Amino acid sequence: MARHRKFGMEHNxxxxxxxxxxxxxxxxxxxSFYPIINAFYLSFHRKDLLSLRAPKFIGFxxxxxxxxxxxxxxxxxxxxxxxxxxxIPLLVFSLIxxxxxxxxxxxxxxFQMAFYSPAVLSSVVAAVIWLLVFDPRxxxxxxxxxxxxxxxxxxxxxxxxxxxxxxxxxxxxxxxIGYFTIIxxxxxxxxxxxxxxxxxxxxxxxxxxxxxxxxxxxKPTVLLVSVMSMIQCLKxxxxxxxxxxxxxxxxxxxxxxxxxxNTAIRDHRIGRASAMSVLLFIIMLFFTGMQIKGxxxxxxxxx
Amino acid sequence: MRNxxxxxxxxxxxxxxLIWIFLIGTAALILMPLLFMFxxxxxxxxxxxxxxxxxxxxxxxxxxxxxxxxxxxxxxMYLRNIFNSFFVSSVxxxxxxxxxxxxxxxxxxxxxxxxxxxxxxxxxxxxxxxEAIMIPMYMVVINMGLQDTYPGLILPFLTNAFGIFMxxxxxxxxxxxxxxxxxxxxxxEPKIFWRVILPNAGPAIATLAILTFRTQxxxxxxxxxxxxxxKMKTIPLYITRFTAETHTDEGAMMAIAAIASIPMFILFFxxxxxxxxxxxLTSGSxx
Amino acid sequence: xxxxFLFLIIVVLLVTSSFAANxxxxxxxxxxxxxxxxxxxxxxxxxxxxxNVTIKRVYNxxxxxxxxxxxxFSGNVGPDIFNLQxxxxxxxxxxxxxxxxxxxxxGVKNVEEYxxxxxxxxxxxxxxxxxxxxxxxxxxxxxxxxxxxxxREGGLNPETDYPKTWEEMMEVSEKLTQRNGEIIxxxxxxxxxxxxxxxxxxxxxQLGGDIISPxxxxxxxxxxxxxxxxxxxxxxxxxxxxxxxxxxxxARKTWNKDNGDMIMCLSGLYQEGRLKTDNPEFYDSGEWMVxxxxxxxxxxxxxxxxxxxxxxxxxxxxxxxxxxxxWKFLDYxxxxxxxxxxxxxxxxxxxxxxxxxxxxxxxxxxxxxEDLEKSNSVYINENGKMIExxxxxxxxxxxxxxxxxxxxxxxxxxxxxxxxDDSY
Lengths: 303, 287, 424
Fold this sequence. Notes:
- The complex is a heterotrimer.
- Chain A is an all-alpha fold.
- Chain A has 13 helices and 2 strands; from the N terminus they run H-E-E-H-H-H-H-H-H-H-H-H-H-H-H.
- In chain A, helix 3 (70-103) runs antiparallel to helix 10 and helix 8 packs antiparallel against helix 9 (206-217).
- Chain A is flat, with a radius of gyration of 25 Å.
- Chain B is mainly alpha-helical.
- Chain B folds into 2 domains: 2-65; 67-281, MetI-like fold (Orthogonal Bundle), CATH 1.10.3720.10.
- Chain B is 73% helix and 0% strand.
- The longest helix of chain B has 39 residues, at 2-40.
- In chain B, 44% of the residues are buried.
- By secondary structure, chain C is α+β, with helices and mostly antiparallel strands.
- Chain C contains 21 helices and 14 strands.
- In chain C, the strands form 5 sheets. Chain C has a 5-stranded mixed sheet.
- In chain C, helix 20 (384-401) packs antiparallel against helix 21 (405-421).
- The longest helix of chain C has 19 residues, at 2-20.
- Chain C is globular.
């Protein structure tokens, strides 16, 4: 009798579980799965957005074109440069800042808010501000010139390839550093104080305390920040879009997402743009998977 | 032993001071562009490019704010755009919270066949860049006849994988005993959701609502495609339009940027504890 | 007999009621405060004349129009009337998305009569397969605007020392540019990046080169001409004489301010209208002048900047009734060409307008007209925007990245050839 009732309850639970998730699933079906499947389908076709003719099936031609296209590889390079150049400093600095802030007894909240405030702005506002800062006559040059005592030098923030890439990285870093610092602070504050105290009693100094106790226990947080920031960087669009639309050169910062947008909207080549989207999706899945796998090997607990 | 302690404290003091300098210096650098935005919004454009930059201007031009609100055509459309941004962001926030909580609850507390697959499937949608699905999504909304409407702006953002993930993580730790007690008392599942789960998920809900609001406030691409007439546009579109047309009135441009930022700053400062705790809800490290 | 009569009445009622049925025309255009005011007035007048017709005018900024119209058409919800710059129009024509002109609705007997009303060569950008696809909203070409006061401040006399050749332009600019170290604080002149097809390609054509070979098959014709122009841009940029580059503020917008930032700029007749609204004191002071587009010293062809324009077009997917009313409305607007010129400084190239006193009395209109007569229409190609983007990459490479002009040219040739071969 009891077993019967338990079985009934489980069945009931399963039913309700499905009912609860159904609305979202329908939503995702229409607004996520359908579009990505559509993009996948279109990637094997040739279609001009303006043409009234039906898409023409061309098999893997779009993909072979992309693999042989210097324009596409330039995008891959730009995206890689941007991603590595942004998420690594983000990871390292947010950890350092979090550790420093937590080592202070006061003003913790002030620093958190100060670092987080750029995240509150919209990307359009950020782009507008930084475009003025990076103007040859703007604050960017002025600050560097005062610092290095080199009056009149134009650091070409938006002109040369490397500086332009660096400029986009700076904007992104500025926007997200606070967010990831706060994540680390939450992680650090969830480590029980007793562990640190035990270490100090054993004779460890502050640095050893950090490396031997805090850092290993932060591994899950490090992984989280790593994956999140990498995905964000791979998906970057607005900064590069707003910069190029305002007249900066496009080639050095023609990240994959911007290339997809331009190929579809400016060049009308939706088939090719879809192929690029599929490739980007695969790249993102791959890197996320690798990160998760790479971290599973050393799980640390304090049990 | 004593020598060690002294060495430790001298090094400690120097290190300490260095840390302070690092923190204060970084904070100053981070805040500098914001200060730039606010100071340049009240000065005439020609001062903005003066070398060196006059942090405190001699000629206050409060008129920049008036020009910003008045708009290039003098129709004060900015006010309508601000309303649109508020309205769309609020509605999206609301639906995201409800749907994420519902879905997160289902995934957290109701074992069913294929639950993990569904969870992973939903998580994978986080890796789809918007530009990739923008055109098919546009077609879907066009076929519903929703271009240039509020539903058209809102529909694609009813919920998202991040929100679901957040709610699921939070609800997994919700005590089963409370739920079972409610069931024994005869409450139906929907009732349990409304009366037990939602009221007690306050922090998570508030955080999700704020984060979603902020993300939606920032949305540029989708309104660009869907909001065709001025009346339906959102703040980012107004800013891009203004900067494109009166590109050389930098003072007014900064005033617009400032106006667009002030609501978010107010929200941020008054509810900062939720911004901070939001990060902690996703940090995943067990405490 | 009675039945016949009844039948006739029903038919007449049906016919007249279909005329009386409400028609809504959707018209998309780009922002321009003066033109918006003008066209709204025409819409009111038109709607008063034909109460069953409503016209909904939607505007967006010019740089976004291309994207918006494209996405709307790709979803088959394009507007009934719209206008785009000539370089962007061609794909719509080639893909059959717009209709050929309707002479009757435009108030003429046939297409030939329509064409005859305009200056020679007006319809070249919108002619395809023997049909004509648009009504001209404006035809523009660019000349050099000079701020006389700033010119004099640099120690030169604008009336006699203005640059007539590109070589002189570089010399004059070197003299007049002011800098703080490497940072330019006053530019003498700067180009209209990113409109390379309109301003840069003619420079190449002056030297006998072209984007495409005469047989239409090969990209980049006459590499020597291209090399000379790319070297000129290299010398203009940061690795050369540092006279300006795309990362500084847009030249023609800064020029209006008369605040010492910009001495000369490249723009069309409409710039005068903008100047009048932006800075009436400067406009009225007469301290500015317009001179022709410079020509290289050893140019093979005496060419001005390419002429381009905007055309109104009608959506081929709209109903026949809507299309007819669309052309009727366009006819109404083109009938007011003088007001477009007087209030918005836009030139619809109607013969009577160009020869009118109103036009002749516009400051320096003769300079524009003379240059226009020796200009080519802007290069039209279904993939025009893509080609322009590639040219831009080459120019940016030599100006900013320090790439050698020969290498940049090689890349450009490859890219454009690929676009030409890759017909969809």
